[in-house]
Each structure stands twice: as structure tokens, then as C-alpha cells.
Amino acid sequence: MQGIARRLRDVRVGTGLSLRGMQALLAREAGESISHDSIRHYENGTRSVPAVYLHSVCMALGVDPSWLLLGQGQNPVPEGGGGAGEDWTSRVSGARAAWEEFVRHARDAGLPVPVIASSWQRSLAAQVPARPGVVTFRRVSQQELQRRQALSARLLEAARPQMDWLVRDAAPATPAVATLADGDGIILAAVARPTELAAAWGLSPGIDWSEKVLGTNATGTALTLERMVAVLGPEHYMERFHGVAGLAAPVRLSGTTRGALTLWVPVAAAQPALAMAVGFAAHAAVRRLRDADSASDVIFVP
Fold first, then answer.
1. pLDDT for 175 beyond 80
2. Does residue 141 contact residue 257 with C-beta atoms inside 8 Å?
3. What is the CA 83 to chain-centroid distance, rounded?
4. Which of 66, 122, 280, 297 has the fewest CB atoms below 10 angstroms from its CB?
5. The pairing of beta strand 187-193 with beta strand 229-232
6. Does residue 201 sit in helix, strand or coil?
7. In 183-255, which ranges are E strands?
8. How far is residue 145 from each of residues 140, 180, 209, 220, 271, measured CA to CA in Å?
9. How far is it, in rounded angstroms, from Cα 235 to Cα 246?
């Protein structure tokens, strides 16, 4: 039971909800009236968790029941991430030394996150420059961007409120950019605070953030792996992005990965709770698509 209790707490804390906030969400989304005191007991492991509560959490937050019950299946924490209480400071500090070793000698220096290490190898094979003097972003034409936006119009409409929420509510105390890229890694839309941050970080609509172009990065690597990914500071293959963290979740429509929702923040502000918020935002966008046209083949893959 302790495992379930811990995961219940992680999933609530990861969305930034208080006990009363969780109570209100369950009432609104699942139609269940559960006291905040009961929720506290379930999370502390001091009271048996009824099946109706587990079902309500899965419905309201889009959590995979196998993960909640057994710790298996689709985990709302990204690849290389951790529980809501994990500290990423040591991971970031160790990544810089590993990156220097890899760039100088093209060998694995014991980087503890396998998905990042394998992405570095792909970046090297694609001849992405690790230390370019100036980063020249590859951008599609305005006409091509408009064509891609039209093709992804439904996804853009569903994702826009979630992008606003990520920047405004999930990361209110830090500069942030939320982006939606298509399946090729082309940025379709960006919401930034402050607004000039998107251009400063190379996240304006039309720019190609595929892994083969810019190396290891949250958007491109999430699309390559078709999994949630957190890329923190010096885990980026290009040194130019070592001050930024990217937290990305891909979205699949009709069995095909059509895009990725990503939150970008200064690396010092990155935390697992934000990564979980991105996962839930992506799920909310997919659920909005389901509600709009009952597309049963629309799925979100964390």
C-alpha cells in the first residue's frame, strides 16, 4: 500500500494541487465527493485506498491505472525524470563533466541517464556541432509554416489553452516558453513570458528543433523516442543551450506521433513537478480532441 500511497501523493504534488485543490478537481472531473482529510490519509498510507478513489484519480488526471496500482505501465514522470520530490541539482552538475568528456573524446563518461547518452551518440552521428561559434537556426518559409499550421489546426486549437496554462500557472515564478512542434520538430506555436524570450531562445514558430538538426533537446528527442523526455542544461548536445531545460511530451493521433508539447525554463528552475505538469497538459489537449470529435484513436504516450 505504501507504493500506491506514494504514487498518489506524487501525482497530486506533480500537478501543483493542494489537498483541497485535489478534492475540487475530483468533484469536477470525476463527479466524486471525497474529503481532503480522506485524501491525506490515502497519501499517508494510514487508510486503505478504495477502488472508487483510484478510478477517480485516473479519470481526472489521465493516469495509467497500471502505473498507479503497480508502478508499471505509462509513468507520468518523463524518461530520466523522477518522483515529484526528486532534486535534479546533482544530475545537472554531473552532466557538464560528462558532456566535456564526450565532446573531447567521443566516449561515454558514465552519464547516468541512458536516453541522453544515446541521443548524444545520434547527435554525433548526424554531425551536429557541439560547440558552434554561432547557432544558425534552420527555419521553414512563412508559406511552409502556414501550411503546417493548417495541417495541425485541430491540435493547435486543443493545445493552446494548455500552453497558456503551463506558462501562466504551472511555472508562474520563472521565465518560461511553451511550444508546440509538429511531428518533424518544426515549432508551430509558442507562448512566452516575457514575450521576447521565444526569439532569444530560438523557439519562434517555423524553427526546426528536430534532433538531427539541433542535437539532443527535449522536443526533438521526445519525437525521436516517442516518449516524454527531460533535457536539463548541459544534457543538451549543443553548448548554446546549456542554460535551458526542456520538458517535452509527444502527442499521437491515429497511431502517429503528430507533435510535441514542450515547456522551456532556465535550468535552475527545472524540477520534476514541472515535467509532470507538461505530461498532464498534453493529456488534457488530447482529451479536448476526444471530446471534440470522439476520436477514439487519439492517445497520449508519456
1. yes
2. no
3. 14
4. 297
5. unpaired
6. coil
7. 187-193, 229-232, 244-253
8. 6, 13, 14, 18, 32
9. 10
CA dihedral sign of residues 185, 190, 192, 196: positive
| pLDDT given for residue 169 in this prediction | 85
* Residue 79: closest CA among 48, 31, 116, 130: 116
pTM of the model: 0.74
Tell me how far CA of residue 45 lies from CA of 18, 111, 248, in angstroms: 17, 35, 31
Q: How many residues does the chain have?
A: 302
Maximum alpha-carbon separation in the chain: 59
105-157 residue pLDDT tens: 877 666 668 889 999 999 999 999 999 988 899 999 999 999 999 999 999 99
Phi, psi of 250 (to 5 degrees): -80, 155
Amino acid in the structure at residue 111? L
Please choose, from the candidates 177, 218, 219, 217, the residue with its C-alpha nearest in 3D space to the C-alpha of residue 198. 177
Give the count of alpha carbons within 13 A of 139, CB side only.
Answer: 13
Cβ atoms of 192 and 200 within 8 Å: the answer is no
